[in-house]
Amino acid sequence: MPFPSTRLRRLRRTESLRGLIRETELSPAHLIQPLFVVAGENVREPVDSMPGIERFSISELVAEATEIAASGVNAVLLFGVPAAKDESGSGAYDEEGVVQMAVRALKEAHPDLTVITDVCLCEYTSHGHCGFVREGEVDNDITVELLAKTAISHAEAGADAVAPSDMMDGRVGTIRHQLDEEGHPGVPIVAYSAKYASAFYGPFRDAAGSTPEFGDRRGYQMDPANAEEAVREAELDLEEGADVVMVKPATPYLDVVRRVKAATGAPVAAYHVSGEYSMLKAAADRGWVDERAAALEALTSIRRAGADAIVTYYAKEAAAWLS
């Protein structure tokens, strides 16, 4: 029936009525907190470009995980910042590497916390690229083998899931095969399937020390102008054995999140990246936006677009707001 019989505002009058018909749920269970781990003891290093975010030594990381778990957030995504780097990123697959030791400590202290590990070489290479460089270019196939070694070392340390973020062709299939061969068939792969060559990663590169020394990553990360290609990437990763596909960044690519979810029906994660986080923090610091309202609106929009899980630096903070 047309107006005045139909009045959609009737169900917006009170919070209780709005809650009854709310289409999209956002809860701490949907959030994943990224964490940076460094070598050393009793280290908490603020990341200047990411207010509220720190790099932790292992003991401090375990303490931070206690707070994260208490907030209701059940999963973390772990990034390593090694003490030394080399051309082949050997610290990434060192059994006594900073991530491998951190995983053991986290799982011992918090066995119910889901520990996901980033599988990439950019934090570990002296040149800052995501793979092995030969004659000025990242060699896809050599890199894939090193990524598989990294994933195996994480699984053997006790990681609950591995998340290759490199955007090399064929890495999901190789990692899946190696995990199965090495006795880890139950470890899922959270594939960064549509990772764009984005301008929103700057603060992360400060935190991880992973800015490329030469060139850029547009030769392997996706062109921001492409959306159908993201669907192809996700479908290929699923064929190769991915359990979850990810879109990164999140809010500038909500259309891609929707397309990937609709096309695949698979579990979809979205990464609310460092630049998205830092922009909200900067605007809130200047009094230009209500931080809590703006952050929760952004995270809700990502869920509304179709993301089942959201990786966000706001995870612990947002969980407190939602409780």
Structure in words:
By secondary structure, the chain is α/β, with parallel strands linked by helices. The protein has helices at residues 15-20, 58-71, 98-109, 140-157, 171-181, 202-208, 228-240, 254-264, 274-285, 291-305, 315-322, and strands at 31-38, 44-46, 54-56, 75-81, 114-119, 133-134, 137-138, 161-164, 190-195, 244-248, 268-272, 309-312. The chain has one domain (26-322): Aldolase class I (TIM Barrel, Alpha-Beta Barrel), CATH 3.20.20.70. Strands 1, 2, 3, 4, 5, 8, 9, 10, 11 and 12 form a ten-stranded mixed beta sheet that branches. The longest helix is centred in the middle third of the chain and has 18 residues, at 140-157. β10 (244-248), α8 and β11 form a beta-alpha-beta unit. The protein is built from eleven helices and twelve strands. The model has no long low-confidence stretch (mean pLDDT 94).
